[in-house]
């Protein structure tokens, strides 16, 4: 059983500002309250391909384990470790992030893909964010209805956290806009 969903959001900010906000999203102390499910983010690797000019980055992300306290008790862990791989192509104005869990894999597999590209209707001023997430609970396949309920709860939590992430991104974009104009908020 797999629970999957797609979301799309339009930032009324240029691609450069939105992608800058994406890099700052976890670093800003003001956002820790909003993104309280994120415990730690560490850059593991980054490189620029000398031929293509693309930036490749890998980060480790530690989060509160998804699901109810009941599920966390069964699993025996309160945290989950994830890997986020990012590819930024400044020439084509594309930023793609793929995040997947590396712990708790015998219980749950989560993969999230996010892409930021200029909006086709207003490419110099707006950015479109396309997000796809899939959640698969593994050992409960025999108990399909329970697995489905847990997947649904996890999906709801991910959608709530996505909304919080968009809120943080909007706040950072406004800060960057003000900063570029020489103003302070």
Topology:
Blueprint: E1 2-11, H1 15-24, E2 38-48, E3 55-64, H2 69-75, E4 79-89, E5 94-101, E6 108-118, E7 127-137, H3 144-180
Antiparallel strand pairs: 1-7, 2-3, 3-4, 4-5, 5-6, 6-7
Helix pairs in contact: 1-3
Walk me through the structure:
The chain is α+β, with helices and mostly antiparallel strands and 185 residues long. The protein is 29% helix and 39% strand. It is built from three helices and seven strands. The chain has helices spanning 15-24, 69-75, 144-180, and strands at 2-11, 38-48, 55-64, 79-89, 94-101, 108-118, 127-137. The chain has a seven-stranded antiparallel beta sheet with strand order 1-7-6-5-4-3-2. Strand 4 and strand 5 form a beta hairpin. Helix 1 crosses helix 3 (144-180). The longest helix has 37 residues, at 144-180. The termini are far apart.
- Estimate percent helicity: 25-40%
Order of neighbouring strands in the sheet with most strands: 1-7-6-5-4-3-2
Give the helix tally: 3
Beta strand count: 7
Shape descriptor: globular
Determine the strand fraction and express it as a percent band.
35-45%
Overall pLDDT metric: 87
- The ordered H/E elements are EHEEHEEEEH
Rounded radius of gyration (Å)? 18 Å
Q: Largest beta sheet, briefly?
A: 7 strands, antiparallel
Q: Could you name the ranges where pLDDT drops below 50 across 5 or more consecutive residues?
A: none
Category from helices, strands and their pairing: alpha+beta
Give the N-to-C terminal Cα separation.
47 Å
Give a concise summary.
This protein is α+β, with helices and mostly antiparallel strands.
